[in-house]
Amino acid sequence: MLAPSDLRVPPDCDLMLAADTGTFMSALVIAVAHDYHAYVLAEFPNYRYVSDQIELNDVTLPEWTAWVVSSCVSLGASPVAWADPNTQFRAELRRHGLRLLKNAIGPETRVTVAREYFHNHRVHLAPWLEILPYELENAKWPEESTASGKYMRLRKADHTLVCLEHLLSRRPRGALPKSSTRKPSFLETYLAQHRTSRGGVDVHLGSR
Fold first, then answer.
1. For the segment 172-207, what is each residue's pLDDT rounded down to a tens digit?
2. What is the rounded CA–CA span in Å between residue 184 and residue 151?
3. Of 23, 97, 132, 166, which one has the fewest beta carbons inside 10 Å?
4. What angle do helix axes 159-169 and 107-119 make, rounded to 10 degrees?
5. CA gap 187, 111 in Å, rounded
6. CA distance 7 to 11
7. Helix %, strand %, coil % for the chain, to 5?
8. Does the structure show a pLDDT above 70 at 151?
9. Please, what sign has the CA dihedral across residues 13, 171, 19, 165?
10. Is 161 strand, coil or helix?
11. Are 141 and 153 within 8 A, CB to CB?
12. What domains lie within the chain, and their CATH numbers?
């Protein structure tokens, strides 16, 4: 689902893209503020969930890539995505305009960093997202960490969530804000109203 057409990203936010490749494909765009808060703006899954079962949408790889690239351009983001270094889709996606960067950070570390962001209430989801909230709420976590203190999340129904973990593992930070007298954009107003996280237990941490 695309973000609203009047969405404008504040100048103190950097846009980042990540992708998860395979039979089930997804990509995710976030805006990162200078205070390390991450705002998830758009998701691009080639699948949906029907009665808790994952199903492919009727979309070809070139069509999916064109969707991601055109949406990135409209948001002002570069069609360059962090992805698993072992992906077999690098050359094919590049032919269609989407370049993949190798994220060498391992899955255990990516999960650990993502948990840190959520525990510190630094992840905020746009209200129009559908797939990522579902995957966050259904994520399965181990009862205990590994010997090195890391958590290895169980891999199931998580292709869009993997994109978020790729992005957060980079520990991104936006530019320092510049003083301005212009009228706040739609996104700036939305972010200001939702910067404070909801109290209590965050359902997006997944279940044990």
1. 887 666 655 566 777 777 777 776 544 444 444 554
2. 40
3. 23
4. 80
5. 28
6. 13
7. 30, 20, 50
8. no
9. negative
10. helix
11. yes
12. 14-205 (3.30.420.280)
- Quote the pTM value: 0.79
Which amino acid makes up residue 69?
V
Contact indicator for 141, 151 with CB cutoff of 8 Å: yes
Residues 6 or more apart in contact with residue 71 via CB below 8 angstroms? 2, 3, 29, 42, 44
Q: What is the pLDDT of residue 203?
A: 45
Residue type, position 37, single letter: H
| Tens digits of residue pLDDT in 1-42 | 444 555 677 777 899 999 999 999 999 999 998 888 999 999
- Residue entry with tokens 């559908």: 130
pLDDT tens digits, 98-113: 999 999 999 888 988 9
Question: Is-contact 184 192, C-beta < 8 A?
Answer: yes
Give the span between the Cα atoms of 92 and 25, in whole angstroms. Answer: 13
Contacts of 56 (CB under 8 A, 6+ apart): 23, 24, 46, 47
